[in-house]
Amino acid sequence: MAIRNIRVDGDDILRKKCKPVKEITPRINELIDDMFETMYEAGGVGLAAPQVGILKRIVVIDVMDDNPLVLINPEIVESDGEQVGEEGCLSLPGLAGEVSRPEHVVCKAFDREMQPITVEGTELLARCICHELDHLDGVLYKDLAIDGLHRVDLPPEEEEADEEEPGE
Predict the structure, then answer these.
(1) Residues recognised as catalytic
(2) Which of 1, 60, 107, 125 is 20 to 30 A from 80, alpha carbon to alpha carbon?
(3) CA-to-CA distance for 16 and 24, rounded, in angstroms?
């Protein structure tokens, strides 16, 4: 396994539509393992293949203890309700924004053995599924942010200092 470089906003690959996976190969299995390792190293809860430069419809998610998900060729087949909450993204480091997502989703996909699976999620899992599947179609959460993005990586006193005019 290896940690891969996470592509950041401005990289054209993040805006491209991914191609379906037709079969599981040793390279696909290696990619999945690398995606988990990369996601964990970066402190994320989800990662889509284009975020590591691969235009394949593959997502890894781990929002629940000891229940990591691999979703190959995923599609949301049902959604309802609404939740509004803050999102961040490994491809937009240091930023966050409020996004409206369904409260509940049902996602059909294939697992890493290409067996059909159905994943039902609410709250954080529903949000994560929607966020990661958006990546597969070239959509970033900043496109959906209600009031734009704000910085989250600066301590409050530094953030306030950045807003002051020079010489004040």
Answers:
(1) 132
(2) 60
(3) 22
As to burial, measured by CB atoms within 10 angstroms (0-12 exposed, 13-18 middle, 19+ buried), residue 140 is middle
pTM equals 0.89
Tens digits of residue pLDDT in 106-149? 999 999 999 999 999 999 999 999 999 999 999 999 999 999 99
Q: What is the pLDDT of residues 43-77, one digit of tens each?
A: 999 999 999 999 999 999 999 767 899 999 999 99
